[in-house]
Amino acid sequence: MMNSKKMVAHLTSAHSRFDTRIFLKECKSLARFGYDVSMIVADGKGDDIQNNIAIYDVGASKGRLDRIRNAPRRVLMKAIELDADIYHLHDPELIPIGLKLKKYGKIVIFDAHEDVPKQLLGKPYLNMPIKLLLSKVFTIFELFAYRRLDAVVAATPYIRDKFIALGVHTVDVNNFPLLGELSTGEIDWTHKKNEAAYVGGISQIRGIYQIVQAMDMTLSKIELQLAGKFNEATVELAVQSDKGWYKVNALGTVSRVGVRDLLTRCIAGLVTFLPAPNHIDAQPNKMFEYMSAGVPIVGSNFPLWKEIIEGNSCGLCVDPLDPQAIANALDFLVAHPKEAEEMGRNGQKAVHEKYNWTIEETKLLDLYHSIQN
């Protein structure tokens, strides 16, 4: 699996420099297996070296439009300067620079975190005609662009199958948890409190309205630990005025160690995304992180999610549009601690057996090896 010290540059204009998928998983895995790894970011926090990974900052953008219009040019200039052997791109707005890097004879991989055409259909700041137009245009662009790259890394089997059907060299590298990162070992249910966790980006499309409404409907004395940032200021103000907000503890952004400590004491992890087009076939990272920490899931009742949650007996699936159903699930876990503990153990067992980064890491390394030969 060694590779005579090939230089790899991961490029992102939108993600954090310590993004879980990009930095903690992919970059660190590649560095551990002998690659010379760099990361180009656009966050304005300066250059750095972490875990033998060189981080180059091309400067923060002033907003979404400025990022889309100008950040790719700055990323491209730094990418050319680095003169890496392999470039691994993480944002759709960087695909055009990937095509330019191909003209320099470079190996270029695109990491499809999301099904972008479906994701565009769920953007709250776009009206429906614009959503439909952009989704259609990007679908055509995908077909043109991805065939010209060396490979696509898909975050889910659904995205993988979509691109394989288009004749694109694609491998699924699922965003499953790092073993042991969010668990301190054996679950001790006696230390659990009547708390539920929501970890990650907070938005209307991810069901925050229904979650907060559900808190007011719970009969048990359960509280919600809300760990993450609101993506929309208007949504934040609206939910703060809801009756259920008195049972919410807004923690803001929490470190990975903080998330681990939080999940240690929670009896439920919420992932009740609304049925938007890009959610139905998604595999939210937080779902598997809850499982890895031994926390029962209260999740949306999409067919794929039910297959994972109910198929592994590690939580309860509910209608994400129904706050009462969410409340009932939380109350059940409070009232039935033995069943909740068993769900937690089942989820942790499933992660150790099949939903973990160690397995996915091998697929990433095999892909890198294959495209160099």
Question: How would you explain this protein's 3D organization?
Answer:
The protein has helices spanning 20-32, 64-82, 95-103, 116-120, 128-146, 157-165, 208-217, 233-240, 256-265, 285-292, 303-309, 323-335, 337-353, 357-371, and strands spanning 7-11, 36-41, 48-50, 53-57, 86-89, 107-112, 151-154, 170-172, 195-199, 223-227, 248-252, 268-271, 297-300, 315-318. The protein is α/β, with parallel strands linked by helices. The chain folds into two domains: 7-176 and 356-371, Glycogen Phosphorylase B (Rossmann fold, 3-Layer(aba) Sandwich); 189-353, Rossmann fold. The strands form two sheets. Strands 3-4-2-1-5-6-7-8 form an eight-stranded mixed beta sheet, with helices on both faces. Strands 11-10-9-12-13-14 form a six-stranded parallel beta sheet, with helices on both faces. Helix 11 (303-309) links the parallel strand 13 and strand 14. Helix 7 packs across helix 12 and helix 10 (285-292) crosses helix 13.
Which whole number gives the mean pLDDT?
Answer: 94
Strand content: 15-25%
CATH architecture of the largest domain: 3-Layer(aba) Sandwich
Note the overall shape.
globular
Helix content: 40-55%
CATH topology of the largest domain: Rossmann fold
Spatial order of strands in the largest sheet: 3-4-2-1-5-6-7-8
What's the main sheet like? Answer: 8 strands, mixed
| Rg value | 21 Å
